[in-house]
């Protein structure tokens, strides 16, 4: 029998990161002790602190209070997706359940607090299990304002503008039909779709501009690829700020710094500007960013990155410094064996279509067997992630060809060549 080594990490993360207001600590959800608990680790390096000890629950979304003294998070039980809201103090680690109403789904806004920390924003289907309302809670007296979405629209809040006037929310009809809505909190107005003038499509709202004059978003309004754009409230204009021959996948902003992630041939590439000027960033390992947290001037950027040669890890990027891992989830085999980065290739299917693929070449002389992995399409894409398998033969003993085409389904269009 051949000797097998285990390449599967025992530790993993939820796709969520939160950077403290002073950028000194990063909070995350990890199952290092068997449950997805809340942890905080110094960005400069050092030991992590476990802030919760949940049993049968998993920490999902995380946010810091603006004063940096506590964290807010959602957690469900045994994967039931009935998320409750919790607050935990950074110093006293006292856990408080702040949920109101019946069991339901509660979804934190991407930036759930107003800038002064008084108002908390989330979505909940407590009124009607088939409808996801927006709730704005006044933490001073626990009073709530509720905003109901239009029919057949699922609301998910993004955040309150820095000046406290506007609430930005996404309105989902499908994963490719997303609109941006604004609610005037000073007038307690009904939600208004501000992207309806541009037609149907993807207008996924993101972070606010610093002066509250508008917000950033990801849209496919200009063609095949998703671009980063900016919407201005005063004149209702939409303008691109970053267009690539690939999709923009994430966008974040703080103060005068804007950062976006581009899916270039399957790998994640970071781009950033500060005060409108390009900001150089260290090159990421060849992999996929699943979460990120940004500090002003990108000092630092914290990412959760999954790569072919290393499982999901939290890494820190600083301009002029490079990439530094904060965690190490590698199984023992990967401490003594170097993984293989794939190379992007294309081949021609029998129909004449060019198919994108990832090719992993052994770093030892052959002959070698071949492993062919075909994904299901049409929306899936093979990407340079760590293999998700219980055990594989020693690295370098196999050649795998991963076929990928984001624009067409698999099946008869794919064949070994």
Automatic annotation (TrEMBL):
Domain of life: Bacteria
InterPro entries cross-referenced by the UniProt entry: 6-blade_b-propeller_TolB-like, AB_hydrolase_fold, WD40
Pfam families referenced in this protein's UniProt entry, alphabetically: PD40
Family: Belongs to the TolB family.
Protein name: S9 family peptidase
Record organism: Actinomadura miaoliensis
